[in-house]
Amino acid sequence: MRRCRSSAGALRNAAAVVGLAMAASAWPLGAQGGLSTEGALFLLVPVGARTVGMGQATVASEAGTESLWGNPAGIARATKREAALHYSRTVVANGSVIGLVYPAGQAGVLAFGAQLHDYGAQEFTDQVGTVGQLLPRSVVVAATYAATLGRSLRAGVTYKLVQSRLDCTGPCGTISTFNASTNGFDAGLQHQSRRADSLVIGVGVRQAGLKLQVNDEAQSDPLPTRLLVGVGGRVPRVAAGLPGAELRWTAEVVNRTSLDDPAVRLGGELELQRQVFLRAGYASGTGDASGPAIGLGFVRGALRIDFARVFGGFSSDAGQPPTFLSLRFTW
């Protein structure tokens, strides 16, 4: 951890830390020009090793607690409760997410989640020694409701409380801290055909909501709203030719509401005996979560472990490829 040697130096470093936190939030997503005009960029960071291993193409997938951060319609058919912990690490931040999916019978499915991005503590000192620490962090709390509409249509909506904050421990004195909050919404639909390949069409909107205001209204920034359209399905011939195996694929396009900067995401998953999962994906762009990705998954009874790594972006160039780990328990 770095040290600041005076109150004035601490102030300058506080500003640097805030700038780093904002920049760190922007790095994990590529193909998004004009990011400087948007706030709460940490909302663009993908959640979950399965999502990342499949190139983030999940708008047409059913991904359990990961669907809280993708397309909320993806939990509409859940029949088991799921509790999960999702962890991510890049060169600029560590992310932790907890999630819970609770099927409520004919009333639909409820889910709850909380996300924390920690950009690292920074010590500051005076003539005596260490005075305290600056703690730049971002926090999201989410609540989701999803339900099936007839045999083939699924729908879901997520409310998000979003915070960007700089806290200080110890006698902070003249150090400027802040806690900026806003509200956002995700919504999505999925339609599944009765074809042999179980083709699913998914559409969604993420991060629609009020601007994030840190200093004053004139300097508030809009949330990074994204539109998503995608398809997914399985390859029946694989199951016929290799008993106990199933191959699924998914593809989507994500864009800003201005429709001027589309990105493509592709992913595939090979399931073996319902116990081992091999994944590969690709997300176009130049950010930390873009480029090729691979993933592994293992199921043992009620426990599921997923791992994914991305091979591209700033973190990979710095020698620390973005790494994602998910632990799930279903009952």
3D architecture notes:
With 331 residues, the chain is mainly β. The protein has a single domain (7-330), classed as Beta Barrel (Porin), CATH 2.40.160. The protein contains four helices and 15 strands. The protein has a 14-stranded antiparallel barrel. It is globular and about 75 Å long.
Number of domains: 1
Range of helix content: 10-25%
Number of strands: 15
Number of helical regions:
4
- The helix/strand series, from N terminus to C terminus, equals HHEEEEEEEEEHEEEEEHE
Beta-strand residue percentage: over 45%
Which parts are unreliable, with pLDDT below 50 for 5 consecutive residues or more?
1-35
CATH class category: Mainly Beta
Order of strands across the main sheet: 1-2-3-5-6-7-8-9-10-11-12-13-14-15
Q: Termini, distance in Å?
A: 42 Å
Summarize the structure.
This protein has 331 residues and is mostly beta strands.
Features:
single chain, 331 residues, mainly beta, Porin, 4 helices, disordered N terminus
Topology:
Blueprint: H1 7-26, H2 49-53, E1 82-89, E2 94-103, E3 109-118, E4 122-125, E5 130-149, E6 153-169, E7 178-192, E8 200-209, E9 226-234, H3 236-241, E10 245-256, E11 263-272, E12 276-283, E13 291-300, E14 303-310, H4 313-317, E15 323-330
Antiparallel strand pairs: 1-2, 1-15, 2-3, 3-5, 4-5, 5-6, 6-7, 7-8, 8-9, 9-10, 10-11, 11-12, 12-13, 13-14, 14-15
